[in-house]
Automatic annotation (TrEMBL):
It comes from Bradyrhizobium retamae. Its cofactor is Mg(2+); a divalent metal cation. Transmembrane segments: none annotated. InterPro entries: RraA/RraA-like, RraA/RraA-like_sf. Keywords: Magnesium, Metal-binding, Transferase. This is Putative 4-hydroxy-4-methyl-2-oxoglutarate aldolase. One of its GO terms (molecular function) is transferase activity. Gene3D superfamilies: Ribonuclease E inhibitor RraA/RraA-like. Mg(2+) binds at D138. Substrate binds at R137. Pfam families: RraA-like.
Amino acid sequence: MNKAVTAPLSASVLEALARYDTPTICNAMEIVAPERRLIGYTTKPLVCPFPDLPPIVGYARTVTIRSVLKSTLPADEQAKRRIAYYEYVGTGFGPRITVIQDIDGADAGYGAFWGEVQSNVHKALGCLGVITDGSIRDIPQWAPGFQALAGSIGPSHAWVHAEHWGGEVRVAGMTVHSDDLIHADQHGAIVIPIDIAAKIPEAAELCGRRETPILEIARSPDFTLEKLKEALKRSAEIH
């Protein structure tokens, strides 16, 4: 099902980004694109059942779902739409991350779109994980290595179904468009603009170098307030 499509970034850039956790990527973004300091990342808490999984970096597949209202489409049309959805998720450049907004408002998470079946199917389609403000279930049977950030964990799928895909979604405060580059781990997720992605790893290294003198003295048995002041001064001089 996967089509050969040229990705906007080389695999080496994605691999470099994946070496850092998402908070470090956010720190680096403050250096490279300070105008994005208040936008582009999750701002509300999400449940992560697999906190030990490494960071994931991939291109967004955007979807809206709902579960409180039953689909009014006939069964054959629902089946066609399910295939069309999988074609959207499983094609284009990769790797991919599915970003799903639950549009049930106050009832978001009423029914779980994600569980044993969807996690395994999406993994097979080339996705690395899901970010959703909806609910997930079947945690013990979840596809191995497939990351999940979710609004909640619940037992039933109710009338859950995909409404639309390929458009703009907003999940936990993060606005995402189809094919946006996403970095995510147990802390949350952030959109990395394609045109500055290659600059982020170097900025992340700079962040690390600036933190080193502060952490060294903070962890030292010889810590004093004066030494902390000196470390802060040294940190500020690192460029």
